[in-house]
Amino acid sequence: MASSHVRLFSLSYYQYPMNHLIQNFKDHENLHALLALYAVLAKLPKPVGCTAKDTVILPIPTTSSRIRARGFNPVLILAKFLSWHWQLPLWQGLARHDGVRHQRGLNRSERLANTQSDFYLTSAVPTRQVIIFDDVVTTGSTVASAARLLISNAPKLRIISVCLAHGSADFGLDRA
């Protein structure tokens, strides 16, 4: 079987100043950084062919223990803005198992191994297109893991990935 790919749309590399904005929002609840990230997201055009009738935005979920520790879900906050900006519904039908090792600080091989069975579905995929949203895509392992689960449950699903920043100019997101 030929390899399938998930298209990735990113606003920036994960470098200054984007990395500082993301870190200040996620780690320090900095509202000025959040407003700057909203302004950046507002520049991102909606992918062609995505309508409210056939497309949902899926924020990459975090564990409930991570939300308790942080006090909020930064990816969900950013995804809600993108949902409003693009006038596309938000779908939270994917959940992350608690006890999964956090990705930050892991090298590429550790990240790839860490995301093999991170997720589970809490509801059926409601549309024919899903935009997976994450704040940072480093190796693509998290997005690829989510995409594999979605495709295994909805084989004809079209998946697009959108992020604020990614870690490299040279990577692909294999979904199958």
TrEMBL record:
SUPFAM superfamilies: PRTase-like (SSF53271). Residues 115-169 form the Phosphoribosyltransferase domain. InterPro entries: ComF/GntX_DNA_util-trans, PRTase-like, PRTase_dom. Pfam families: Pribosyltran. Belongs to the ComF/GntX family. This is Phosphoribosyltransferase domain-containing protein. It comes from Moraxella porci DSM 25326.
